[in-house]
Amino acid sequence: MFSAAWMRALGTWPDPKAVDRSLHTSRARPGARLLRTHDAMGEALPDGTLFRHEGQDFLKWSGHAYRYSPDGYGVAVPVPNGRVWALTCPVMQAVLAAGYCPRRHPSLIAR
Questions:
Q1: With b meaning 16 or more CB within 10 Å and e meaning fewer, what string describes 28-42?
Q2: CA torsion sign, 41 to 35 to 53 to 100?
Q3: What is the β-pairing status of strands 64-69 and 56-61?
């Protein structure tokens, strides 16, 4: 459950509007319609994190990387060792690391 993982990661559960503000502040650049990206180590990202590596977007899931496309996710490849650009904001990464498991896209269900 999201709220339980939030509390494990960040302490008390605020009201839903405060959660939304926290997530928005963590992921959006002020005054722009752009996401913040964060320098990260690929192997250290929690499952469920989206990241960019060498100009391509991936999802880290079950210790593998799956390339994103509008039609779904590609085949499993090794998670890059070293630096990547995390697309998932740090607040959400903390919630994922605390045990939140998002629903998977149908292209990942059999994997």
A1: eeeeeeeeebbebeb
A2: positive
A3: antiparallel
| Token pair belonging to 59 | 């999802």
CA dihedral for 30, 35, 37, 42, sign (positive or negative):
positive
- Phi/psi at 40 (5° precision): -150, 165
Percent of the chain residues topping a pLDDT of 70: 97
Q: List beta partners, residue 60.
A: 65
| 88 contacts 48 by C-beta, under 8 angstroms | yes
Tokens of 66: 């799956």
Q: What is the pLDDT of residues 43-55, one digit of tens each?
A: 999 999 999 999 9
User: Token digits for 12?
Assistant: 């008390």
Q: Mean pLDDT throughout 17-31? A: 88
CB atoms closer than 10 angstroms to residue 96:
20
Would you say how long the chain is, in residues? 111
